[in-house]
C-alpha cells in the first residue's frame, strides 16, 4: 500500500469521529529525518467543526512495534509494549503544551495524525533574524529548564524514567564513534583514546540525572508564531542536566550562529533560570557542559557515518566539518584527552573541517 493510500485510510477512519464533514483534500510528502519514520502533510477540507486545515501523518516503516533507539535495551528483547513516541507524549502532555497534539492513532500504532506545528525550525528562525538569535535560544533554554523542573516520575509508566544515560550507554556511543567515525589509525592510539573516553563516561554517569529529551537541538524545535514546539522526544531518558544544553548550543552547525562568547552567556543564562534544588544549581557549569558536548559530538560523528554507510542516508555527512570542529574545540577544553585529541586530528573521518573551524562572530 502506498503512503498516500495509508494516509487516506487513516484520515477516513479518524475524520468522522474527530471532525465530521471533513475530508482529505491532498497529501504532500515532507522532508524526513534520520529515523525510519515518514511524514506527510495532510490538507483537509469540508465543513467539519474545529477541524484543522492541515495535520501531519507520521508513518512507521512497518506495523511492528519499533524500539525508540536500538541501543536502549532496557525495555527488553521484545521491545516496548507501546510506541515510545505515544508513551512519552502522553506524559509530556500533562506538563507542557510544547509538544504537538496527537489527534489519532491507528489501531496497530503504525500511523498517527499529529498537530501541524509548521516548518519553521529554531535554526531557520535564528538564522533569518540574526540580531534576535540569542533571544530565541534563550527561550529554548527557558523551556528546557521548565521541562527539567516539572518532569518527575509520577508512576504512570513513562519510558523516560525507566532508562538512563549510564556508563554503559555513554561507552556504547563512544564505541559507535570508534567503529564508524575513525579511519586508518594506529591501534595503540585507538586503545588509548578508548581508555580516556571510558573515564569521561564514568564522570558523566556519576552525576545526578534529570529528564532529558536526548535530541534537543535547533532542528527539533519549531517556532509556531511566538510558541516553541518540541518534536522527536521518543528517546527521552534520564541524563546529566547539561546534555540537552550542549545539544542545543553545539549540535551540527549551530556554532555558526553561536560564537564562544554567546555560548557562555547562554550557558550561564541556563544556570540563572534553574529553580532552587535543581541538580545543576550552584555548580560550575563549564566542566560538565564541555564533557557532554564532547561526548555528543563524538557520538554524532559516528552516527552520521553509520547513517550513510549502513542506512543509506548520506545527507548528514555535510555537517561533519562543523561537528568535527566542535569536537576538537571541546576536546581542547578538557584535560587528560591527549590521545582523543590526536585521533580527532589525524584519524577521524571529519570531512572538510577547515570551513567550520571557527564560528562566525
Describe the overall structure.
The protein is of the alpha+beta class and 361 residues long. Helix content is 42%, strand content 13%. It has helices spanning 3-18, 84-92, 122-128, 133-150, 167-181, 187-205, 242-250, 260-273, 285-309, 320-331, 338-346; strands at 22-29, 38-46, 54-59, 102-105, 111-115, 210-212, 221-224, 227-230, 237-239. Helix 4 (133-150) packs antiparallel against helix 7 (242-250), helix 5 crosses helix 9 and helix 7 (242-250) packs across helix 9 (285-309).
List keywords for this structure.
single chain; 361 residues; 5-stranded antiparallel β-sheet; alpha+beta; 42% helix; two-stranded antiparallel sheet; Aminoglycoside 3'-phosphotransferase, Chain: A, domain 2; 11 helices
